[in-house]
Input
Amino acid sequence: MPFCWLLACLLVAAAADFSVSPADAALGINWGTIASHRLPPNTIRQLLLDNGIKKVKIFDADGHSLGALAGTGIEVMIAIPNEMLAAMNDYENAKNWVKQNVTYYNFQGGVNIKLIGVGNEPFLRSYNGSFTNVTFPALKNIQAALDDAGIGDAVKVTIPLNADVYDSPVDNPVPSAGKFRPDVADLMSQIVSFFSKNGSPFTVNIYPFLSLYGNPNFPIDYAFFDGTATPVLDGGIAYTNVFDANFDTLVAALDRIGFGDLPIVVGEIGWPTDGEANANVTLAEKFYSGLLKRLAAKQGTPRRPNADIDVYLFSLLDEDAKSIAPGNFERHWGLFTYDGRPKFPLDLACDGHSRWPASAKDVLYLPAKWCTLNPSQSNASSKLSDNVDFACSSADCTAIGDGGSCSAMDWRGKASYAFNAYFQTQYQQLESCNFQGLGELTEQNISQAICNFTLQIVGWSSAANSLRHNWRMLAAVGGILVLMY
Output
């Protein structure tokens, strides 16, 4: 690095304020990055700041995401993927991970890392015990590595868990009967004791939408916060929504093993807006409106009344490359669209007033052109079906599936949607709108009613970014640490 460049950095840094004030308890959000065309990390940084987001959870220790969060003061939870848990059973690996991904950013003006999420729902029933034996040792090693690095008091470990780790007996399905699942009960007792000893919270993901989606007999009004005709009666308490009932089932499970006062963080909660009949903007706005009003009022739950519940909304943006194994709605959890536009008003300030969030700034789009089915096609042929299937195998077609926002279109409209989705995903390469002569380019926006035909953004990738977010500490001048990319 030329000396003049270094000197310029030092002078700029000396004049800047690199102080990071700790964020108060506030609303958080999950920032996922499984998308074919990502918004640049610095665009996300500004989007978070413009909307007053004080906490963010990321799903791995991505250096670009962490670099973008430096100097913002935003509290950060970093997750260690399940696939890395076995490696973290070796203390040297855990120590190196902490050194590279936590202490590396731990300086004045750096990243305000507060929590390490060890795994992501590792005890989910569908994993069939794959991570049962490696999660707790990884948790202990990461905590030990934080302690050895001298930051164990400031950075805590947790495990983002699915709500299926606890339940109530079939013959007494009320929150006060909550207990941990038999196959993980002993392990959960050890983990909870460890959390209590180290000042860590219990982190749980609660999804009222999934309760509705997975049970055809589930009363839809019980998923929201404006009352129900059939509350769940638990002694003298009437539970009118599934969030309160779920949360208090966990509180009861913790109380049953002697840790009823352990802090609880809701690591994920949200409502999708497409891909299924109940996944739409209207119901999502209704859900968030009720949830955020309750958080603003610090209403708590019956077993923890007047509590200020720590919540991370799921999620920031739609992610069009996520697996749809759980359902087509998986790609539509965002409060913002793929290009950073808000979907509906929200009370992100938790002051009891909904308002339209700020949009992402300076978003770059591909040229205004779309791929459509050639209008000369007069009938649906096997060739057309094969090409639609091909397009949807590499692009997001969930909106044209049953219950999706574009499902009401005829076969021509659905074919055009599929062709355009693939065309945009492929950065509008000319050959990607051929489809054996069935496709045709147009400069007319072919969106229909509530069905949006995507015009993709230019997108960002680490490979295309010439300046790798590899923060280095260069010098200290008057107590101010100086950084560069």
User: Anything to note?
Assistant: The CA atoms of residues 232 and 239 lie 5 Å apart.
